[in-house]
Specification:
Blueprint: E1 4-5, H1 12-15, E2 20-21, E3 25-30, H2 36-50, E4 54-59, H3 64-71, H4 79-83, E5 87-90, H5 100-111, E6 113-119, H6 124-127, H7 131-147, E7 151-157, H8 172-175, E8 178-186, E9 191-200, E10 209-215, E11 218-221
Parallel strand pairs: 3-7, 3-8, 4-5, 4-6, 6-7
Antiparallel strand pairs: 1-2, 8-9, 9-10, 10-11
The chain binds adenosine-5'-triphosphate and magnesium ion.
Residues 30, 32-38, 73, 157, 214-216 line the site of adenosine-5'-triphosphate.
Amino acid sequence: MLERIKTGIEGLDEIMNGGIPKGQLVLLSGTCGTGKTTICTQYIYNGLTKFKENGIYLSFEEMPQSIKNNVSQFGINFEPYEKAGKFSFIKYDPYHIEEVFEILENSIRDTNAQRVVIDSVSALGIHVRDKAELRRMIFNLSVILRKLGCTALLVSEIVPGSTGKISRYGVEEFVTDSVVVLYYERNEFAFNRAIQIWKMSGSDHSKKLHPYKITEKGVTVQSADEAFMKKF
Ligand SMILES: Nc1ncnc2c1ncn2[C@@H]1O[C@H](COP(=O)(O)OP(=O)(O)OP(=O)(O)O)[C@@H](O)[C@H]1O
Ligand SMILES: [Mg+2]
């Protein structure tokens, strides 16, 4: 049977048929403010607290301290795990962006991390302007993660209004095994949030669009419910 890595996020493992197939790279894509960073921190934190799995968080955009401050409201505190060498945030140097690959690989080995987050591959584009170079870098990231057997979330930020696109550069979905899309759409009454498992290699999963919430518990998915949105 397929071994799964549970996100531990309420409702999310259910719509993934039990969790992320071990060793897969998952693209987590959505417009700004859809909760991508929240999901990523919950994924890593649940790994540390519930499943005894170590983690690495590589942030290309938001400062680690800002992420830590934002998620403290969800009861997430990485500090004891950082001190114990079970988790680390990677700080990259924008002037030596190529070095990030070596730092990532060494950090994964040093912490023996099974869970990895890259937040976000889109933000890499701020530092690497050349499209071909950028694609090569995204591909290189995937090669390192696969080589080390990590189960990873790669965040991609979609530009609002870019209907039909599930990634920023159109390459991310080809280096990943699974794709999860977050939607934030307006209907007649309010803005609604919905999540969909777009694809998942070698596994069945929910084909429906499910509502999700961001509350003091972080992200929770209403796996028994179906979301209805205008464009669907
Ligand atoms: N306590 C809370 N209750 C309800 N909603 C919250 C709460 N805390 C944060 N949010 C929502 O979460 C959103 C931010 O989530 P997060 O930073 O994870 O999104 P993101 O997709 O990573 O955004 P970005 O694209 O800017 O990186 C906020 O815009 C807000 O709507
Ligand atoms: Mg974010």
